[in-house]
Amino acid sequence: MATRRSVYGLMRAKGQLKSKGEFDSGFERDVLAHLEEAGAQVSKNPVSNAGKHFSYQRPPQKYYPDYVLGNGVCLEIKGFWDDEDRMKLKCVKAAYPDADIRILFNNPRSKIRKGAKTTYGEWCEKHGIPYAKGPTVPPEWLE
Q1: Exposed, middle or buried: residue 103 (CB in 10 Å: 0-12, 13-18, 19+)?
Q2: What pLDDT does residue 46 have?
Q3: CA dist 126 to 82, 99, 123, 129, Å?
Q4: Using CB atoms within 10 A of its CB, is residue 108 exposed (0-12), middle (13-18) or buried (19+)?
Q5: 3-state secondary structure at position 77
């Protein structure tokens, strides 16, 4: 039986071994090496799975904005903005596209996660959500 090191060498020589950045973890890379060594047909998600994906909805929850202005604008105040909160807001906007939800950030230039290129502000622009840098609310939001 081939050793793990020789399997990696063979896979690398054949161009089958993905580069370090293409795996979520070393464990994932090891599992793939063993699957391929065993002759199993396997593809890495998402592109190589030819459309294999699972759509799902979060369980029903309630969203309460931090503030609701007199003009009906829902104001969300964010310092740190984690993945879960972004997903929640994305789900709310999908369910209620006419809801006027705006975000006031402590720093809209903060990255959405360590090592990411996308900032909070860029994420909002991509998803059509108005935002501003606080603590001052833009006067036009109060009209």
Answers
A1: buried
A2: 44
A3: 17, 17, 5, 8
A4: buried
A5: strand
Q: What 3-state class would DSSP assign to 92?
A: helix
Among 127, 70, 128, 131, CA closest to 104: 131
Q: Can you give the pLDDT at residue 47?
A: 46
Task: Yes or no: say if 128 and 97 are a contact pair by the CB < 8 Å rule.
Answer: no
Model pTM above 0.85: no
Question: What stretch of H or E contains 9?
Answer: helix 4-14
Residue with token string 């909070």: 120
**Residues 87, 85: Cα–Cα separation, whole Å:** 5
The residue whose two tokens read 């994305």 is: 90
Q: What are phi and psi of 48, to 5 degrees?
A: -75, -10
